[in-house]
Task: structure prediction
Amino acid sequence: MLHLLKYDFKIYFRHAQMAFFSIALPIIMASLFSLAITNIDNDDTFARIPVAIVEEDADSVIGGYFMQMMEALSTDEANVLSIVKVTFQEGKDLLEAEEVVGMYIISEDSVRLMVADEGISQSILVLISNRFVQVQNTITNIATQRQDLVMYAMADIMSEIEVNQEVSLGRQAIDAFGYMTITFFAMAILIGMNTGVYSTEAYYPHRSKEYPMFIRTSTSPTKKIKFITSNFIIAVFAQTVYSLIVLAYFIFVLGVDLTRQLPLVILTVVIGCALAISFGTFLGVVVKGSTQKVLAVTTIATMLFYFLGGMMGVNVRIFVRQHALILDRINPVSLISDALYSLIHFDDYQIYITSITTMAAFSIIFCVVSAVVLRRHTYDSV
Result:
């Protein structure tokens, strides 16, 4: 067994093509992406939300309280809204010109909101109107009994709005850079599928009709399970080393915060590499043909995983989750990204545990299936 481990170790760490695609490619792509979106967060995070206000009834009591809240949210201290009072037609024109995000219409006994698009800013405006409507009756009752308590009720609403604004805009920044760089890191791990394909060459290096049987790597009688186990251990080890190098670059150069739960991050890398290697091995023993053909199939599969996992845009993954949740649940890119993302931004480990156990289960399944298929092959004579 030790001989096999040494043999496989030399093979994997001398494979220049494997090392390049596992280390250099993710680093280059993530660096280019990082340069492309530099300063996006600084431009968007602290911008006030422009909103138009139409007062159809200037004497409305409810409208008066709503205006007090809006003016408080537009102060330099709150730094949430930038309001402008207009007529209804002027507000529609501003909406169509995209000079304001939304328009509040204050009537005698209600407040309505009009928006022309969907997004984070619009969601905050919806939160403001919905929260105000929820406590509208409470504010009216308080006003008839204790006028001095009205501002306390509205202060409670404003505190909730400011907290939600901070969380929403923070998530926008995370989605723009953090999530995508995590997805690039998931790509670095999943490149191990190619390593898994290359690992099958240890069993039959010449995939052609002239070499229908496996080539021996040892003349001594050794059980096939030892060959498979040795190959798998070294392949996972090599891919883990490559992925940790990429991880170090992401942390120290790109500034991605992956150090909060570093031991669990490393565990995610190991299990993710095991999943990639086992899946690549599975394709290597199931798909018939040359190594180039198997690699082509692997590339198509990985590109599909990247696309469904949101590498081409977060909205793609949102669409997949809404219309084909099972595809998201079995996508290796999504599983790795969710595990890492939850470690960074959530205190609850439920998402992490679910992702890790799913990856481990798939790894075991692929290994078992690959071993069963490999048992049916025969070796060339010595």
Observations:
- Residues 2-36+191-375 form one domain.
- Residues 150-190 form the longest helix (41 residues).
- The chain has 16 helices and four strands.
- The longest strand covers residues 49-55.
